[in-house]
Structures are given as C-alpha cells and as structure tokens.
Amino acid sequence: MSESSPLLMIPGPIEISPGVRAAFGAKPPGHLAPGLIEAFGDSLRMMRQVWKAGPDSRPFVLAGGGTVAMEMAAANFVSPGERALVVNTGYFSTRMAEMLRRYGVDVAEVGAAVGNAPTPDDVRRAFEPGIRALFATHVDTSTGVRIDPEPFTALAREHDALSLFDGVCATAAERFEMDVWGADVYLTGSQKAIGLPAGLALLVASPAALEARRTRRGLPPPMYVDLDSWAPIMDAYEEGRPSYFSTPATNLVLALRAGLEEILEGGIDARITVHERAASAMRAAWEALGLQPVPVRGELIANTLSALCYPEGVDASLVGKIAARGVIVAGGLHPEIRETYFRVGHMGYAATREDMLTRTVEAVGGGLRDAGVEVDLTAAVEALPIR
Ligand code: PMP
Questions:
Q1: Which residues line ligand 1 (CB under 6 A)?
Q2: Atom of ligand 1 nearest to the CA of 65
Q3: Percent of the chain scored above 90 by pLDDT?
Q4: Mean pLDDT of 42-64
Q5: 245 by DSSP, 3-state: which?
Q6: CA Rg, the chain, in Å?
Q7: What is the pLDDT of residues 266-318, one digit of tens each?
Q8: How many angstroms separate the alpha carbon of residue 143 from the centre of ligand 1?
Q9: Burial (0-12, 13-18, 19+ Cβ within 10 Å), 220
Q10: Which atom in ligand 1 lies closest to the alpha carbon of residue 142?
Q11: Atom of ligand 1 nearest to the CA of 201
Q12: Mean pLDDT across the stretch 128-133?
C-alpha cells in the first residue's frame, strides 16, 4: 500500500497484508489443481486452530460472504417448527432472527437497549422449554458491542440446545474457545479479522451440530448451503483428493491459507492479544479526544472496532472530513442511532501496524478540529503507543 492511498479503517473490508495480497494475486488455478487442493486442505486444518475447535469438528469454506455463512447456520441445524432463541445485540442479530423465521423456525428474542447486551440471567429467563438452539452475535458490528459467549454456551448445554455464534466481526480477534466451551457453530466472513478480501463464508461445526443436520426434518436446506452436500467435498480437500460440488473461489482460497498462516505465526492467543492491545490503545486515544463509546460498559467494547458518538455540535459530515485526511471510516449502521455515531475498524493487518493506527487517530482528531471541536491531538497520539 502506498502511504498516500487512503487507509481503509472501516469494520470490514480492511487493509490486507502484503503476503495475503501476493497470494490472492497469483495466476488463478483450476479448481482441481494440486496446489489449490493443498491450499484448501491446509486452510481447513488451520481453521480448527484459529477457532480452537476439536479434532472432530468440521470446517466449511464456501464462496459467499458473512451472510452466506449465516444462511448455512440457519438452514442446517434447526428444523422448521422448532424453537430457537436469538440473543439480540443489534443489526446482525435481527438479520439472524429474520433468516431463521424464513426457514419456519419459531424464534424468540432476548434483547437489550442499543449499546447494551442481555446478561446471562436475562438469557436464562428467556430459555423456555423446547428451545433447541441459541444464536448470538459475538461482536455486533452495528454498535461495537461484544458479548462473552462462554456463559451462553453453558446455558445452551444445560438446556440440551445447540449454541451458534456469528463471529463475522470477531473470529481471530476476540477470544473464542470452541472446544473448551462446547460451542457448536462459529462462523465468519473473509473480509474482517481473517484478513482477506470479501468473498468467503467460513464456518466450523461441532459433532453435535453435524448430528443435528443429519436428523433435521422438513424440506432439505437450499442446495448451495446444504452442508451434507459440502461435507464430502471438505473431506476430499483435507485428504488431498480432487472433488467438485460448486466451483470454489480459487484465489481467495490461496489467500486464505496465507492469511491463516499469518494469524497463526505466533499462535492464535498471541494474535488475539495483539488485537486487545490495539483496541485498548485506540480506546485511550479516543478518550484523549473526548469521544464517548456507544457500548455502555467497558467490558462490552470489542477489540475489532470502535463505535463512537459524535460530540456535541458534530454530525455525520465528520466521516467525510476524516476521509479528506486520507482515512476511510464508517458512519452509523444501527437504525435507532444511525445519525449519532461513527465506526472505526482496527482488526487484522492494521492491528499489527502502529503507524496505521496512529494515522487513523490523527485523521479523526484532525477531522474533529475541522468540525470546530477543540481537541488535544498530541495527547491522543501520545496515549496510543501499544504496550
Ligand atoms: N454478521 C456480522 C456481525 C457482520 O458484521 C456482517 C458484515 N458486516 C455480517 C454478518 C454479514 O456479512 P456480509 O456483509 O459479508 O454478508
């Protein structure tokens, strides 16, 4: 990336590392080429490490995006007429609930005020008999609210239900222990902390989730997202054999292997620590600029992005003022508060690059100044160094 090109600091798609770009830019292989099969198999094996999933879990990679991964979760693991509970923390949980309803699932929701999240006790009260699955969004990208999935996995197990998590804005940047916690499904898209361009749907399913697919009643899932059709294909890739169901996004798979290798360079725990440190440095810088977070409590603030309220007298034109300083950030997304806040992503490659984080803080501070707010930019940049 040339230093003069705008820096992409929205909560996905994100800045891509040179290594991932090089892999993505390779001459496109055929879908049966040995090199592609090897990259696919390596990626599936590395996904188990990034997800901290057990050896019996099954990773899936489909051409698509985060919403396709959500569709895979909605279509395969609950039967029409069964009950599911959606822990609603914002825009993407609402999408999940609507998706499940389209499959004829009887959906109950437990929510909280914008910027907040239901507590485990709230979820326990909402866990009525007959609920077969709990769905939750690990980080809601519309508000920057992060939940702690662990108590929800425990509640689901207590009720003999599956627990499924949308990790689109979390996977590889927030702590997740799929095997130890007994989570059943963790899904994401390629364009966030996995560090690729957009275009892949990634999902890992536990043995219990795969069993739920086998015993699912009603019409089969739509053909493209039917995991029974994909399971033998994923097996073939892991075993190094060619196979075909629908053509994979070949160059994205090459990029996926490169991206997962980078994530696992120092181990997944170290990669998450990098994100924790970047996020807390950004929090310190925002505080120094006088910006208030949308999440109502510190522990709800995600590692992957900052959702920040516009200060008094500032409106959505701030986003354009920041862009004029060479950094692209995102406006609001949650319909109830859209005009009152903006969002800055700091995941993947950018979380490893203090210079990018510094440029972002300088552009936000400069934008605030351009909007007539008095800010101490030196204090903000001084607050930033990653320790
Ligand atoms: N879930 C979450 C938490 C997301 O942030 C997004 C994308 N912003 C999605 C799902 C949907 O992903 P996509 O846009 O790739 O379909």
A1: 12, 65-67, 70, 92, 137, 141, 166, 168-169, 189, 198
A2: 15
A3: 97
A4: 98
A5: coil
A6: 21
A7: 999 999 999 999 999 999 999 999 999 999 999 999 999 999 999 999 999 99
A8: 13
A9: exposed
A10: 5
A11: 15
A12: 96
- The C-alpha torsion from 373 through 374 and 375 to 378, rounded to 10°, is 140
Which residue, judged by its Cα, is nearest atom 9 of ligand 1? 66
Which residues are CB-neighbours of 273 under 8 A, at least 6 positions away? none
Distance (angstroms) between ligand 1 centre and the Cα of 188 equals 8
CA of 66 to the centre of ligand 1 (A): 5
Comparing C-alpha atoms, which of 339, 354, 326, 327 is closest to residue 294? 339
Burial-class residue 217 by CB neighbours within 10 Å (0-12, 13-18, 19+).
exposed
Mean pLDDT of 27-56: 98
Give 340's DSSP letter: G
- Residue 210: half-sphere exposure toward Cβ, Cα within 13 Å: 15
In this prediction the pTM is 0.97
Residue 311, helix vs strand vs coil: coil
Token pair, residue 202, equals: 């990634």
Does the structure show a pLDDT above 80 at 157?
yes
Supply the residue whose CA is at minimum distance from atom 12 of ligand 1: 66
Distance 44 CA to ligand 1 centre (A): 21
Give Cβ neighbours of residue 243 (< 8 Å, ≥ 6 apart).
232, 233, 236, 237
Burial class (CB in 10 A: 0-12, 13-18, 19+), 47: buried
